[in-house]
Design brief:
Distance between the termini: 40 Å
Helix content: 25-40%
Shape: globular
Largest sheet: 8 strands, parallel
Strand order of the largest sheet: 3-4-5-6-7-8-9-10
Order of helices and strands: EEEHHEHEHEHEHEHEHHHHEHHH
Number of helices: 14
Bound molecules: NADP nicotinamide-adenine-dinucleotide phosphate
Strand content: 5-15%
Length: 324
């Protein structure tokens, strides 16, 4: 596993971490397809394989995700960097302080390593939220401040609102098919030491190659994701084949190639969501090799030929819910 430094800190983090939105969330199939016994050993096994970073949020599974992370880090807490998030609905000064207390309790820990503001709330001044974040650092309840789903403009505003601390990370959607952050955020992140934590790094499973236009996931959640549109999945076949081929040559899986592609940049970490030990082990194995120039070029050549339909997902929600 490759390691990088989290933002402008001295914290060494594995470039592959684990995402835990899936832990406790019924929409992903929690309680039906997988449950506590499937996930609770993941962090210990991950650690054996070099993974030392986990991401959760107060909103995931209505708090269950944080509780599961708490159980999973028992005895190994000091070796794992724990990141969680405060929801935009709790972004007032007091709201942040209280939300942090609740998260600490659910996690069963004394200090959150990375506390991230989940989405910007346009109604609450960023200075208020950041003041609370700095208070929490002062109190020793959190170590570092991060943000999530912030544009470059919003990121700079958050930085300006801080008096003593800095923003160490911005968690945004980033994968081979969704590269929006490459335009502004990534160049800035490299220059200013703000780690980009890539969420949905497998494009919610599309980039594992297991889904096709004839074999789509059944959960309602991914029905809302335009990438799972049968036409898009069909268009992606040439890319899947290329990734499959590279994977085979390297003795890796398709998903491992997709994750490795992201972490070629030391400013980027990837946090694939995991539902089982098997997925966790596979994803941990995505960080011990390098794609060479030829392979990267090949991926670009094939990708540049694909024109995905990107019709705004809000527009598609009613359509996707109606479709089988
Ligand atoms: N900050 C934010 O706003 C935000 C938003 C979204 C996510 N996140 C964070 O980012 C994490 C990851 O994003 P994500 O869950 O949206 O998408 P993702 O990581 O791209 O995809 C996760 C899904 O891919 C499948 N998968 C994972 N590893 C696999 C493997 N080795 N082999 C085959 N399938 C595998 C699993 O679903 P199946 O097995 O059902 O296919 C899993 O639920 C989340 O858990 C969460 O921590 C943050």
């Amino acid at each position: 596993v490759f390691y990088t430094t989290l933002g402008a800190t001295d914290l060494k983090v594995s470039q592959i971490g684990f995402g835990t939105w899936q832990w406790g969330d019924k929409w992903w199939g929690w309680g039906k397809d997988y449950a506590e016994h499937d996930v609770v050993g993941i962090l210990r096994r991950g650690l054996e394989l070099g993974v030392n970073f986990v991401d959760t949020a107060e909103i995931y599974g209505g708090g269950i995700s944080e509780q599961m992370v708490g159980k999973a880090v028992k005895d190994i807490r000091d070796q794992i960097v724990i990141a969680t998030k405060v929801s935009p609905t709790h972004a007032t000064y007091n709201g942040v302080l209280k939300a942090c207390e609740r998260s600490l309790k659910r996690l069963g820990i004394k200090t959150i390593d990375l506390y991230q503001y989940h989405w910007p709330n346009p109604v609450i001044p960023i200075s208020q939220t950041m003041r609370a974040m700095e208070k929490l650092v002062e109190q020793g309840k959190i170590r570092y401040i991060g943000i999530s789903n912030f544009s470059l403009k919003q990121l700079i505003k958050a930085e300006e609102a801080l008096k003593r601390e800095v923003i160490v990370s911005n968690q945004v959607k980033y994968n081979m098919l969704e590269r929006g952050c490459e335009r502004e955020l990534l160049p800035y992140a490299r220059k200013r030491k703000v780690t980009i934590i890539a969420y949905s790094p497998l494009a919610q499973g599309v980039l594992t190659g297991k889904y096709t236009s004839k074999n789509r996931p059944r959960d309602p959640l991914r029905k809302l994701n335009i990438l799972f549109d049968p036409q898009n999945l069909a268009k992606l076949e040439p890319l899947q084949q290329t990734l499959n081929r590279i994977a085979e040559e390297k003795g890796k899986s398709t998903g491992q190639i997709a994750l490795n592609w992201l972490i070629k940049d030391p400013s980027v970490m990837a946090i694939p969501g995991v539902k089982s030990l098997r997925q966790a082990e596979e994803n941990a194995g995505a960080g011990d090799f390098r794609l060479d120039e030829r392979e990267l070029r090949l991926i670009e050549e094939v990708y540049s030929q694909i024109k995905l339909s990107r019709l705004g997902s809000m527009l598609r929600i009613p359509l996707r819910l109606l479709s089988p």
